Amino acid sequence: MSEKVLIRSYIPKDRESVEKIHFETGLIGKSMNSLLTRRDEWKKNISIYLEKEPKSAFVLEVDHKVVGYLLGCLDDKNLAEVSIYLKTVVTSLLKPKLPKKDRIFWKGLFKYMIKTGLGKFDDLKLKTPKNAGHMHIDLLKKYRGKGYGSKLLDVFLKYAKDNNVKTIHAGSFLTKLNPNRSFWLGNGFKEYSRVNSGFWSYVYPNQDIKLVCYVKRLK
Questions:
Q1: Where residue 123 sits, what CATH number does that domain have?
Q2: Listed residue (150, 157, 132) closest to 56, CA to CA
Q3: What is the pTM of this model?
Q4: How far apart are alpha carbons 124 and 67 in whole angstroms?
Q5: For the chain, give me the number of helices (H) and strands (E)?
Q6: How far apart are the C-alpha atoms of 154 and 151, rounded to whole Å?
């Protein structure tokens, strides 16, 4: 029996499912369970999409279950991701009775942010196009490689084009741990810039991980 696939606009009752997928894919495509015992802090990283521009979010349903999402922003001037992560890290470390495993993870991210600010990591040097929209996409592992991500992307790109957006960009980690470059290139994106990333340096100290900005011009 073939799977019943539906791509539709995000609605508020999807939030729990979206946040769960965000947790299960957060570690370069793998679950954050090995790093965190609590999900509350991690889910804040996508809260701005769901609260500020929910109309630009879409979900993928397979057999009536939400298994993927695409969170969009039609003008990335409205999305200050760096400040979001910084606020999340600081507020997480200040939480009382934070489990030891969680504290180690958030301390690692805090050190990364300090070193990035001092120029020891290159993440902030990533170039992105001006006057462009932005997107973030995730699917549960079981549903990758079936073309669902491309279909989800097509729905968003049509929506963006209908709203007079000329360019869309997305940031993605380039690593052997979660190869995804073919997804972007296969869907008409081009590499705009790349830098050496330190975001996961405290989790994978021996891995060469790049942060890449992929761009697509909408005709």
A1: 3.40.630.30
A2: 157
A3: 0.93
A4: 31
A5: 6, 7
A6: 5
